[in-house]
Amino acid sequence: MVSSRIVERSLEELAYPQHGEVYNPLDLGRVAFLGAGQKWYGAVLETSVENGVVSRLAKIAENAGVMIRFIQFSNVEPHDGLMRAIVFLDFSNTSVTPEELLRLARKQPFVKSANLITPTLNGILSDTYFFPLVVGKKRAVIFRRRVYESLFKGIREKFGTAGEAMLYYQGFAIGNRTYQAYREETGLEKPEELAGFMKIYLRTMGWGIMDIVSLNVEKGEAQIRIHQSFECETGKDSETPYGHFTRGILAGYFASIFEKEAKVIETRCIAKGDPYCEYMINTHG
């Protein structure tokens, strides 16, 4: 298998090209801090799902001299006939008002509704429409690094090795539940497919980029590498492997795949200066 090695860089360097792939941060903030003279407004649109919707809406904005600064769609299920999006629009260089632009949008037969979002708190434009956040119809929340870093470090500082054990067992429960939930939701049955889905889960949740270096279902063994682990990047200069929560997740998930108790050892860790975190999984005690 091809390994996706990621080089640690600052957020200003947005691209991480390796092995023909490019990795870019995705900003989900839905918040804009406006400078002097900037006139931005938000709009929430509900439209039918058909060809040309985005291009026709973009043309309306272009003709009005309005620049689209940000657009994000709520995920659409394959059978859905409607889609919803939030858009941040820049009116700094036009005399057209937000109300006038929305009236133009509402005249389009494919637009079912259009609602305006105005800046608050001295020029802060934010999403005041969508709530709660969901992933796969299940409620989700976003923790920025300062929050989860405080969580991981706080547990370690308060409880020491007992805290690391606590993180492991919490991770184990999450890994086990994740396996059960997504096996039911996806209909996947083959162990190789379920192991592959873990790659999708970790990446789309922002927890890390996972490579399956090796997987032997018959022997109950796997070698996993995780690049840019959200847990281990908070433990810089650690003298020991730092990914106890992640280790627990892998143990819970792969114990379900192998249908045996799985032991997981972290042999490499970015917190120690390694280029990636590596986990050896086996069911041999």
Description:
This protein has 285 residues and is α+β, with helices and mostly antiparallel strands. The protein has two domains: 31-139, ACT domain (Alpha-Beta Plaits), CATH 3.30.70.260; 144-282, Trafficking protein particle complex subunit 3 (Muramoyl-pentapeptide Carboxypeptidase, domain 2), CATH 3.30.1380. 32% of the residues lie in helices and 25% in strands. The chain contains six helices and twelve strands. The chain has a four-stranded antiparallel beta sheet, covered by helices on one side. It has a four-stranded antiparallel beta sheet with strand order 9-10-12-11, covered by helices on one side. Strands 1-6 form a two-stranded antiparallel sheet. The protein is elongated and about 70 Å long. The model is unreliable at 1-22 (pLDDT under 50).
Report the span from N to C terminus. 27 Å
Unreliable residue stretches: 1-22
The tally of domains stands at: 2
CATH superfamily descriptor of the largest domain: Trafficking protein particle complex subunit 3
Structural class: alpha+beta
What is the C-level CATH assignment of the largest domain? Alpha Beta
